[in-house]
Amino acid sequence: MPRMNATRRHPVNFTLNGRAVSVEVENRMLLSDLLRHEIGLTGTHVGCEHGVCGACTVQIDGRPARACLTLAQQVRGSDVRTVEALSPNPAELSPLQAAFRRHHGLQCGFCTPGILMSLDTLLRETPDADRDEIREHLSGHLCRCTGYASIIEAALAAADELRKEEKTNA
Amino acid sequence: MKSLGAAGGLIGRPVERIEDAGLLTGRGRYIDDLPVRRDTAHLAILRSPHAHAEVRAISTAAALALPGVFAVLTGEDVARLTRSMTVGVKANVECWPIARDRVRYVGEPVALVVAENRYVAEDALDLIEVEYETLTAVVDPEKALAADAPVLHPSLGTNLINERSFGYGDPEAAFATAAHRISIRIAYPRNSCTPIETYGVIAEYDPAEDAYDVTANFQGPFSIHAVIARALNVPGNRMRLRTPPDSGGSFGIKQGVFPYVILAAVAARVAGRPVKWIEDRLEHLTASVSATNRVTTLEAAVTPEGQITALNWDQLEDCGAHLRAPEPATLYRMHGNMTGAYAIRNVAIRNRVVLTNKTPTGLNRGFGGPQIYFALERLVHKIADELRLDPLDVIRRNLVPGDAFPYRTATGGLLDSGDYQTAIDRACAEGGLETLRQRRAIARAEGRLYGIGFAAVVEPSVSNMGYITTVLSPDERKKAGPKNGAQSVATIAIDPLGSVTVKVASVPQGQGHRTVLAQVVAERLGLSMEAVRVNTELDTSRDAWSIASGNYASRFAAAVAGAASLAAGRIRERLAAIAATQLNITSENVDFRDGKVLDRNNPDNALSFARVAASSHWAPGTLPDGTDQTIHETVFWTPEQLEAPTATDGINSSLCHGFIFDICGVEIDRTTGQVRIDHYVTMHDCGRILHPGMVEGQVRGGFAQAVGAALYEEYAYGGDGSFLTGTLADYLIPTVMETPEPLVLHHETPSPFTPLGAKGVGEGNCMSTPVCIANAVADALGIEDVQLPLSPSRITGWRHGEERPPSKPLDAKPAATGASGERMLTGSGSAEVSATREAVWAMLLDPNTLKAIIPGAHEVRKVSDTHFRAEVTLGIGPVKGRYRADIRLSDMVEPEAVTLAGGTEGALGSGRGTGRVTLTETTNGTRIDYRYEAAIGGKVASVGGRLLDGAARVVIGQFFQALARHAGGAPSLANGLIQRLMAPFRRRG
Amino acid sequence: MKPASFDFLCPDTLEEALAALSQGGPEARVIAGGQSLVPMLNMRLARPALLVDIMRLEALRRIETSGDEISVGAGVRQAELETWTSLGRDLPLLAAVFPWIGHVQTRSRGTVCGSIAHADPSAELPLSLVTLGGWVSLRGHKQKRRVKADDFFIGMMATDLAEGEMIEAVHFPRARPGSGYAFREVGRRHGDFAIVACAAVADERGLRLGIAGVDDRPRVFSLPPLDDSQFDDAINDIAWSLNARDDFHASARYRRDLVRSLGRETLKEASRCRA
What are the 2Fe-2S ferredoxin-type domain coordinates in residue numbering (chain A) (predicted)? Predict the structure, then answer.
């Protein structure tokens, strides 16, 4: 592949929330800015741009990752998933989202999309995740409103729910 | 819980929040999400790397020439179109949102760039050249008062911008006759509740009407609107200020966005297009606002039984480089409750406000409370220690008695309600104090470090807008006219289909205002919550608002929800009158239930709410005589208890006073010094609880922030004013792993002064928890002086004795550094060279030699025999930057000794240092000895301090090693490491 | 906080990558996971002219065992090694270390070799590599060399990597039966950079203690047995030799104290594991 010049925009193709996306970006464009300002999916939030706060967390190829520490060019060919893809339809919340609402797992909601993306991965991979595993995944996120307790409760409740769902489906 | 409305029972229920579905699905509308005009440009701000410097020149031509740049503004450009911001005290000082001739804190705006996007705007920042003449900085509030301290504002002539003394009761007599005088000295650090969403502003200017239209995630108080409009030189009605529907947390901090409202507005005017600015995290940590740091000496007159008869407060408040509105409010918000939960009748207070080379301060959750309660509650524990009493007994002995409410404090506060004794008894019993004491006994018997602390705190809410005028003398207040009250406002509107909309000027940042308002209004009108829609966006040109509008001082539940309830009550009254004529009953018999308006005695005799509600639109002529429309009802409510300060400086600074009693058990790891919170109990009396889930959320959230303040968080400055905590890897916000779960208890005594009996609840733990943890740590360690944050290193420092020396002297002395946090680097070294002293001396004065030995030098220019300028590229790992270096030689004793003083300046920051070089003749040539002191400032210090001290040492070392090598010798410290490190620099040099 | 502009190359072959790096000189940098580099780009602390993305080079994305050595290619993400099935058996020290490296969300993108190349003096992976006595394979346009980990790290974010070179792989000696390993760390918060981190190996050759967070690179020392009368002196002298510095997170004295106490505990645990 030829060297891509700094002063021009270059194509990047990837899958975003299940759909193929093709955009042109400068090499230096961050994935967080691409999602928010070029594509218009503003659910992914930006809190620090140095990878600590976790607000911008999305899923890249099924793993939680910081969109602010990812160049748009680095997701070429990848599968990116954002908070906008979590609920089954616009009028319905996923079990994880519903648990957050039930347990007051959010206040200002700014850190929430990133937290949901991390927990969504965890609960998908480890349906019987316990409190410690949930805390471990949450530790990569800063929340200033809740004191975290209600987030843990919401995650535990969602895990319960998902296990029940699985049993019913099985 | 008892409900107000017959049909409702909504108030007090933990219903799911209206806000959440949108927020959970990524459909929130925060400021950076809002649609903007297509021609909107982006603003980036060049900020000072220096804590104190004269601005000699700013060169913007290269930035302006960059494609995509629309405008570049300096302080002078801004000043031409604005006025200085209003300062809250009488003082000969100006307050600009951007530096003009002088910078006074690291991060102070120096120039603005407007460009097509943020990336290009930042490219342009790199092209602006500023010539600074650095001045000595002062960061310590006590040192700032010294006669020889550098003065920040020459027009003021001093750094002491305000001083007032107060006396209540007869403190002199109480102290003169006291059995014991016990005092404590506290230096409370700077911290901030740092919301995860940063500041954001979208500004537009209409030249045809000379009017500004700004959207900002500002949180109020809207008294600041007046400050903005005045600064922009327009009447209030030409300064339209709007807030977005969602805000990503504030905790007071987003009050501080207002200087940027002014800057963005002016930038939009100059650029001729809308301008958007989203603050980045480095900007936020460096230059938004924080709580004040404060030095307090508090003395108590105490009886042998531990009863406090008088307090003497001496508070030195550090507001940073400028006194920005509404400061010095932090110092006065607590004025009415300076005696806390205690009945102390004699109080003396001296309040001084000092300016230092740090970021200006502003609102922060707890506002003034953490600072005073840290002193007061530490003192109570100290009294117990000195008199060998149980701290809990000292607390109980001094409490305001349960039958004394409403209780007028010595300083003029009116404590509305409470039952402190019972709340404490319940907290001790239900919180398991006895178990905790047993745990402490066992731990201590095993040689572990375990301590218990308490804190009793009165949590004020709903600020009196007049309290800040306590800073003025009674005469000054008389001239200025009285200021008081706390107007809260709510509007209820009914549309032609009879559905209800509530609008309030409350500007929530996550507190669920829309949900609670829907609960309150739905209950009053007998509707389901879904039937009521709430709008909390604020638009100063369309909505009802006043100076007290906004979301601060925990005013929502007590004041705003109350105003909405009153407005709903008025509408209800009128609807009842309208319905009564149609139902053929008297209006007293009209009830509102399940979306119906009906006869209380005959429920079948009913009308739909919508039909009655819409009649003002469709058939105004049918309204009964004397009954007003029901289309739109706005209620302004201000409590009568919030009076202006009295002639003797009495002030009821807040309407409501909640109560908190905390118990904390901590264990400290003997090895690491880490504090583990073993058990935490927090008892709250916030009056009537409107939504248990949200109250719980407020308490736990405030608690987590307070744990941060107690153990982790500090906005740290070096002695030279460099800012050291510019990233979230340095400013340490607790994660879930560091946040214990407290036991939260409630004891409700409804406020008689608020429409719903509610009080504020969100700030209390920020006031009580830091000192409660500190009391527990002091108890565990058996020491008196504890300083926040209680870092493991600090705690170990209080404990450890003499350090075991090395078994044999070290080869290289450990680098001598100053006190922890001090930025000065020092070091020394020596080298033997074959050249003569004279030859080495000549090298030091020769630009060509300097070029060869200055690390990364591209070019060295001789300005005079003793003054050189160089362009250098310095880098460690991937961190690389180009700098201008300035080197001067002084104290020259040819050919024996010379002092080299140098400074570097570049986009990444600045460095300065001095080195003394001595040359001694040896049998083989010359020995070069050097010692140096150096400091790094600016961005590198803020974001990379952890690494870059070491990096600076390497670079300085390189210089002297290179000098030695150049002079034909082998530096005694030279090894492969230095050679390899130098390789890239040499190649470029 | 946005990066300055740079050229970007996503080569299809290692040769192409090496040619570009060689051509780009000091202004070219490799980007792998980007978890250390991108924050520096965002803050404009780093402003390379060219970034070479090596994550498409399949040859670099392998974990390979050959004889007594585990080789981790430059494209292997931390999460991939963390979940490698033989980790607990073959690299028990790393199994203990991984939970301390950043967070789940950064380990999912960050690479093992990226952390080695970054050479943060507090970082856990460089410490592990040095303590285990591992190696670093470097590739240049024309040459290939293997450097002992202890020689690779030369200072604060400074390594032996020459211009035009990149790390091709790092090599960890495989755990041998009868060896004990332990890791301890003290940081301010979970996931923070270490104030002091200690890694220890106990085997038939004796005790080895690696220390990060104190000196400007990870350091490794051999120590006498714990019950030896000289042990206290030895670890005390190590603490003093590390040139500990004060910063606002921790004093030099605190760091030395932790080296003494944490070092002893880590060695004790490694010895226990061995037994």
Answer: 10-86
